[in-house]
Amino acid sequence: MKRFSAALTAILILTGSDFVCGQTQSLSFNDNVGVPNAGTYNPNDTFSFDMFLTFAGFDALGYSLWFDTTANAAPFIFLTGCTIGTTFPNPTQAPPYPLGFTLSEGGGLFTTPNPSDLGASLPGGAPGVVPGTYFIGHVSFSLSGLAPGTYVVQSAAVGGHSSVVGDTSFGDHLLPNTTYTITVVPEPSTFMLLAVAAISLGLYRVRRRAAGVLR
């Protein structure tokens, strides 16, 4: 029985579902270019994506949204803007931008320097939003010298600041991690420099060999 309970708990955490009550909730990201939740960028590029909230089994009053990132990327990624959708029109905070990460992987959040919830809620007394899929906002980011490699920006589902959707009974439903994958490649100018260096080295070796033959 204990093993079954532990397995069920793990499933609920991974899926973000309230299985017993038939309640489910999730986020999705879409940058509207190619793969919806991934992109390839240079070390100092900008990127953005739309956010969608899907829930079933309850009416919602609002949501909280915190972001996390890969540990070694934290100092080089900044949130430059967040436009809240009309479904939940009242932002819980309106922080000044840009916002940077203070922590990463499991506790990462934007700060200004105080923690900033990017969620939104209905005005007081408004009826809840019925189940469905809704556009909830558009977020923009900038990179500042991020080294080539693969990283993620994700909605935080662990730690002191978890992303949740709140229902009309004032219950919070945990939103699972939703990731946006960032692949950073060198600037085109870097490729050119490497190519020139390789060609120069090749010519140097050819000349040395030719000089040796002539001797």
Level-1 CATH class name of the largest domain: Mainly Beta
Low-confidence sequence ranges: 1-15, 190-197
Specify the helix fraction band: 10-25%
Rough outline: elongated
Instruction: Write the CATH fold name of the largest domain.
Output: Immunoglobulin-like
Strand order of the main beta sheet, please? 1-2-4-12-7-9-10
Mean pLDDT rating? 82
Please tally the β strands and state the result: 16
Please describe the structure with a list of short key phrases separated by commas or semicolons.
215 residues, alpha+beta, Immunoglobulin-like, 2 domains, seven-stranded antiparallel β-sheet, five-stranded antiparallel β-sheet, 2 helices, 19% helix, disordered N terminus
